[in-house]
Design brief:
The protein is mostly beta strands and 756 residues long. 12% of the residues lie in helices and 52% in strands. It is built from ten helices and 38 strands. Helix 6 (279-291) runs antiparallel to helix 8 and helix 7 (294-300) crosses helix 8 (303-311).
């Protein structure tokens, strides 16, 4: 731990030195440089960071590009706010931790992902980037404006818009040891100032880093996508803009998160004993599952006797080829009407569709019989009103009112079974069947939410400089969940239903004593709807689970200077009630999804940045002490490090006529992290402990040159010191075997970009 902290201190020292060099160099030579205001959309309209009652981190297009931010989960390279939870199984179901809190329900995230204002369903939480202009992370509950599912935070992805960004076109190829990515982005005016259009195309191959038995790389994959939009601008005569947009993404490949035993993790290659190919694991799992049946246990004289007899009964066969695929579609229509007084009326209609398959457990066979189909329709209409004197610091404000309706349907069909045709004991117990069903789900879950929301922000001037402000928000939401189908050896959810009425609030007071500096206090809440498990495993699942609620209390400060320096900090306390989590049922291998009680997180955040013509640098730190307060459960939440630091720097080492040379990089330190969800006293009784990983630091470096204005060539190294670490660690539930999801090793690459 001390060594890692020392490394982190060296990172900060290097960053400070880089900033000093950059500012010194900037002082020697002056360039024309327009310093853009850092803006956020916490209230679904653009506002500067200083006026925000809350905390956010923003990464612009250049930051994303220079630091190889290839997708949503990669933003943790440059912000400390987000810790992605990439565990065993599908990368498609990635969940995220903000302020020490995350969702124990992978099908119902506590962090919402938006792309161009369109809410993404759970199956598209992790997606590749293309044509992206900026990413912002809003920290803490955003329940009043964004609704259920945003009780921990928001990740807002904004793609480029030619109406505002002008004409642009880029062709890029990026080849490295682990990836080969190619993309094309183009946008601009198609007809005078009335019609605009854009298109983006991206493809990526993943070469993998885990060796298979034959010496080839095992965890390979590929993905490609296309996105585009048409924009119609009515101009002054018809103050209306219409946007028609959509995207398509296809991902397929072997699981990058394949579980490795300790020896395989050390060697970086499979030996035939990982969780996916381990005959002992499969024998233990099937024996434990069968022995948990009361009739089987009684037949053998007890659970332990049944387990021992079944485990030693003879060979069983398993079929598994861990793969994943996903086809995802999004289409949307936006209408923005601008009134003469500055008010706007916004309508957003969107449709999302995702067909996916994740195979990572024994017996699951092939895609085609193991599908999750997600359909989501959303309609939102809101009115944004200008109040007081627009642009005035001392007498101005904005009000937002709106309504939202969202319908999500999830069809989950999984047929998992193990071949026991050569095992007489199993055949006798199963009445002659040649297969043991270990995961049968054929279930449809429908979730409907209808909500009304509003928010008011107003500034009150006191004297020449001082300004007080108030932010009041509220949201009422009615959620209805239905489920119907079979699961868990013909258990049924027979047209079950449950509903929730959710009310969230926001109250904030701010004070700006000089322009560019502001303090605020905030109390807010966010909710995550109840419902039914999308992948039920226990008879307890047909009871459903209740909504999860988060209350947030915050004291914060914002500062922004005209010289390019900004700083933001906050103290926060988050209190979570009725936490949703998968739990182990005693004497069973089933993990029902249910409410397990309360947890909280207390901590502090600090971000600092410097931007100039010659240098960009920043550092962010998050300390979040999260504790599970439920009796009988572990105190350590999963994937919630107490301390995270992220830093970045980019320095223009030389700039001449038609040529510029940049050097830079980023670093991240993450403290000790626990894994697993729903660990109970039952684990301690079986001498099992919650798995964890010690703190570690990661560093990336790059150098790039801009040639003849339109050409850029870049060389980079990710994970410079080839740090070996795990995305997650599991003890195999009740099996007592430690499995690793091995993270990516050092990666060296070269990128070539042409802009015209």
């Amino acid at each position: 731990m001390y060594k890692e902290m020392k490394k982190n201190g060296m990172l900060l020292t290097a960053l400070a030195s880089s900033i000093a060099l950059a500012t010194s160099a900037a002082a020697e030579e002056e360039y024309d440089f327009n310093l853009d205001t850092i803006s956020v959309s916490a209230n679904k309209y653009s506002q500067d960071m200083v006026s925000l009652s809350g905390q956010a981190e923003v990464a612009d297009e250049k930051t994303l590009d220079k630091n190889e931010i290839r997708g949503v989960k990669d933003i943790s390279k440059v912000v400390s706010a987000v810790t992605p939870a990439v565990g065993f199984g599908s990368r498609q179901l990635t969940k995220y931790t903000i302020r020490g809190i995350n969702s124990g329900n992978i099908y119902n995230s506590g962090v919402a992902v938006y792309v161009d204002g369109i809410a993404q369903p759970f199956s598209q939480m992790n997606q590749q980037f293309n044509d992206v202009g900026s990413v912002e992370v809003l920290k803490g509950p955003q329940g009043t404006i964004y609704g259920e599912g945003a009780q921990v935070g928001i990740i807002n992805v904004t793609t480029k818009n030619p109406m505002f960004d002008g004409n642009y076109a880029e062709v890029e190829t990026d080849y490295s040891k682990l990836y080969w990515k190619n993309k094309l982005d183009a946008g601009g005016a198609l007809y005078e100032d009335t019609v605009y259009g854009k298109i983006g195309i991206v493809s990526q191959k993943e070469y993998g880093w885990i060796k298979d038995l034959d010496g080839s790389n095992y965890n390979t994959g590929e993905s490609y996508g296309v996105n585009g939009a048409l924009y119609f601008n009515g101009g002054e005569k018809v103050p209306l803009t219409v946007t028609l947009g959509g995207s398509y993404n296809n991902d397929r490949g072997h699981q990058s998160n394949v579980a490795l035993t300790e020896s395989e993790y050390r060697d970086g290659k499979l030996s035939g004993h990982g969780i996916n190919r381990n005959p002992d694991f499969t024998r233990s799992y099937i024996a434990g599952m069968m022995a948990a049946d009361p009739g089987v246990a009684a037949y053998f004289g007890g659970y332990e006797e049944a387990y021992t007899a079944l485990y030693n009964s003879g060979a069983i066969k398993d079929e598994i080829d861990p793969v994943e695929h996903r086809n995802a579609y999004t289409a949307y229509v936006k209408l923005d009407y601008y009134r003469d007084n500055g008010d706007t009326i916004n309508s957003v209609t969107s449709v999302n569709r995702s067909d996916s398959c994740e195979l990572y457990m024994m017996g699951q066979g092939r895609c085609g019989n193991n599908d999750i189909q997600t359909r989501q329709f959303s309609q939102e209409v809101r009115y944004v009103a200008e109040l007081g004197q627009s642009g005035s610091r001392s007498d101005s404000g904005k009000a937002v009112i709106g309504v939202n309706a969202t319908k999500t349907t999830t069809d989950n069909f999984v047929l998992a079974q193990v071949d026991v045709s050569d095992n007489e004991m199993y055949q006798a117990l199963l009445g002659g069947s040649q297969y043991v069903p270990i995961g049968q789900v054929d279930l449809r879950a429908d979730d409907l939410s209808v909500s009304w929301f509003g928010d008011l922000v107003y500034n009150f001037g006191v004297g020449d400089e001082s300004v007080f402000d108030i932010d009041l928000g509220a949201r009422y939401e009615h959620d209805l969940s239905k489920a119907n189908g079979t699961y868990n050896f013909n258990s049924k959810m027979d047209r079950v239903a449950k509903d929730d009425d959710l009310i969230d609030y926001k109250v904030a007071f701010g004070f700006s004593y000089v322009p560019g500096q502001r303090v605020y206090v905030l109390s807010s809440s966010g909710s995550k709807a109840g419902g039914f498990s999308k992948f039920p495993t226990s008879d307890l699942d047909d009871k459903g689970y209740d909504a999860e609620k988060t209350y947030n209390y915050e004291l914060g400060y914002h500062m922004s200077y005209d010289n390019g320096f900004d700083a933001n900090m906050a103290l926060f306390y988050m209190d979570v009630h009725d936490r949703q989590a998968y739990t182990i049922v005693e004497n069973s291998y089933m993990t029902p999804l249910r409410n397990i009680g309360q947890m909280h997180s207390a901590g502090a955040e600090l971000t600092m940045g410097y931007r100039s013509e010659r240098a960009v640098a920043g550092i962010s730190m998050t300390y979040a002490d999260a504790k599970n307060e439920t009796s009988g459960y572990t105190k350590h939440p999963s994937n919630a490090p107490k301390f995270v630091t992220a830093a970045l720097v980019d320095v223009t080492a030389f700039k001449g006529d038609g040529f510029a040379w940049h050097i830079g990089g980023n670093g991240r330190y993450q403290s000790k992290t626990y894994f697993g969800e729903g660990y109970t006293d039952m684990f301690a009784a079986n001498n099992l402990k919650q798995e964890y990983q010690g703190g570690y630091s990661l560093f990336d470096f790059y150098t790039s040159a801009e040639l003849i204005k339109n050409i850029e060539i870049k060389a980079y190294v990710e994970n410079v010191f080839d740090k070996k670490y795990s995305n997650s660690i599991d003890n195999g539930s009740n099996f007592g075997v430690r499995f690793h999801s091995m993270a990516a090793p050092r990666n060296v690459g070269l990128k070539l970009k042409y802009s015209f």
